[in-house]
Q: What sequence folds into this?
């Protein structure tokens, strides 16, 4: 995919971090759709997509945001960055393909590209591209969360590793589980009224949730760790193993259940 041309960002995106995040995530998504058509399958497709998207995003940040640091799922695995993210004022936290498994299972659309910006202690912008849906959700124009349509709450859970306690939680609050790939797709499903909550524990990293959480917050959804504490990013330890994203009215019953029963 060396011939992929992302074009140039619109002039306003160079002055506006929300729009730059959206533009970069969308460009990487277009590249990924092309890689998905290349005839590769399974692990070869996952690896090719991860690498192509990571390299494109790193190139775009080097070109257009040269003073900023980047924390990427792929960067974390080896290659060294230009700036030290622990001393940088601005750090882009990116997941080149979230829901890698689902990406390798066309025509599934529950996979995403995450681009978030952390600045001096807080998430300040984010974009979640869902290329197979042709949509990019971002903080520059946060999703308008529709009125809740389902009579029973729906909880998005991992399709391949749903935490056992979430089943108990669902029983307690009369909810149904909606299995889905990708942390980004699950968070965005709450904003789209496809589900009402996403509850996860047992492992995840900052890049899995940074951009989706930025978008969720901008849309007015509740976000926290499962103990109710704030989700913090660009920490020394990038493991961020649990989270809740939900409609505000569901936060109390979910937190209460977890405080009472734990996650074991
Ligand atoms: N227990 C765990 N430990 C580490 N990462 C986890 C995890 N559970 C989920 N994740 C990561 O969270 C993302 C969403 O997972 P899921 O689709 O199962 O909900 C995936 O990101 P990647 O696809 O970027 O690897 C997955 O690797
Ligand atoms: Mg991920």
A:
């Amino acid at each position: 995919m060396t011939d992929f041309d992302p074009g140039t960002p619109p002039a306003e995106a160079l002055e506006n971090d929300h729009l730059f995040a959206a533009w970069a995530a969308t460009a990487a998504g277009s590249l990924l759709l092309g890689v998905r058509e290349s005839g590769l399958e399974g692990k070869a497709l996952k690896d090719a997509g991860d690498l192509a998207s990571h390299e494109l995003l790193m190139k775009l940040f080097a070109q257009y945001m040269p003073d900023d640091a980047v924390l990427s799922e792929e960067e974390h695995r080896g290659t060294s960055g230009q700036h030290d993210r622990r001393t940088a004022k601005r750090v882009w936290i990116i997941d080149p393909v979230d829901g890698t498994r689902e990406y390798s299972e066309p025509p599934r659309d529950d996979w995403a590209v995450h681009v978030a910006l952390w600045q001096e202690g807080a998430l300040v912008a984010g974009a979640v591209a869902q290329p197979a849906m042709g949509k990019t959700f971002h903080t520059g124009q946060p999703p308008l969360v529709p009125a809740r349509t389902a009579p029973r709450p729906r909880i998005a859970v991992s399709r391949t590793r749903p935490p056992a306690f979430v089943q108990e939680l669902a029983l307690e609050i009369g909810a149904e589980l909606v299995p889905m790939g990708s942390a980004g797709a699950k968070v965005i499903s709450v904003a789209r009224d496809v589900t009402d909550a996403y509850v996860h524990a047992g492992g995840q990293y900052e890049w899995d949730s940074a951009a989706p959480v930025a978008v969720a917050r901008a849309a007015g959804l509740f976000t926290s760790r499962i103990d109710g504490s704030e989700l913090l990013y660009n920490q020394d330890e990038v493991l961020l193993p649990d989270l809740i994203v939900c409609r505000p009215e569901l936060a109390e019953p979910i937190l209460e259940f977890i405080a009472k029963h734990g996650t074991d």
